[in-house]
TrEMBL record:
Native species: Artemisia annua (Sweet wormwood)
Name of the protein: Epoxide hydrolase
Organism lineage: Eukaryota, Viridiplantae, Streptophyta, Embryophyta, Tracheophyta
Domain of life: Eukaryota
Record-stated family: Belongs to the AB hydrolase superfamily. Epoxide hydrolase family.
Alphabetical list of SUPFAM superfamilies matching this protein: alpha/beta-Hydrolases
């Protein structure tokens, strides 16, 4: 019998209206975007509950499209709808998926999506540090297929002078090729080498 994911539809208030001056505005224009689907407590949980925990984890972890994730109501992941089989990338094993699925069954997905529902609260709680700079030596690593890298304006920010103004001791921005969101899992040897080389400077 296939295991079904346990959900806990206890959402938090907020995240109902996103500031149109932020890059999130572009995510509001499509009702199928995940950022829109998580707003209503219980909505995305109910959609994901139609899939097994293993399927949910495979579809999230194997996602390699630099565009935002679309989740049309009643259809599941747009890039891999329904029970469409997912080919695991080389860095992800069935044993990995089994472990993650077991953890997901224990906790449900609500805790994870509440992070996005509570963005407004996070901004309020960190308001005192608005404009603060990161004053430690920094090396920034991201994959060129990471959807966050392609969010409106962020690539220019990361590669331009604005990032350096916010992180004055930024030493290097590394954009790893053919790598998506989980850089340390996809390319562990390369990431470890980057970190080791960076730390050896001190």
């Amino acid at each position: 019998m296939k295991r079904q994911m346990i959900t806990n539809p206890m959402g938090v208030k907020g995240f109902k209206k996103l500031n149109k001056d932020t890059w999130f505005a572009s995510y509001q224009t499509n009702s199928s975007s995940v950022m829109n689907r998580v707003v209503k407590p219980g909505d995305i949980e109910a959609e994901l509950a139609k899939m097994t925990s293993e399927t949910v984890m495979k579809k999230f972890l194997a996602y390699r499209d630099p565009d935002q994730i679309y989740f049309p109501k009643g259809k599941g992941f747009r890039y891999s709808p329904g029970d469409t089989p997912v080919t695991l990338p080389p860095w992800l094993t069935e044993q990995d998926v089994e472990y993650y699925a077991n953890q997901l069954e224990k906790t449900g997905i609500t805790g994870a999506v509440n992070y996005y529902r509570a963005f407004h609260l996070s901004w309020e709680l960190t308001a005192a540090w608005r404009g603060a700079k990161v004053m430690v030596p920094t090396k920034f690593i991201i994959g060129d297929l990471d959807l966050t890298y392609h969010m409106p304006g962020l690539k220019d920010y990361m590669l331009g002078e604005a990032f350096k103004k916010d992180v004055p001791l930024l030493q290097e921005v590394v954009v790893m090729q053919d790598v998506a969101h989980f850089v340390n899992q996809e390319k562990p040897d390369e990431v470890n080498k980057h970190i080791s080389n960076f730390l050896q400077k001190f």
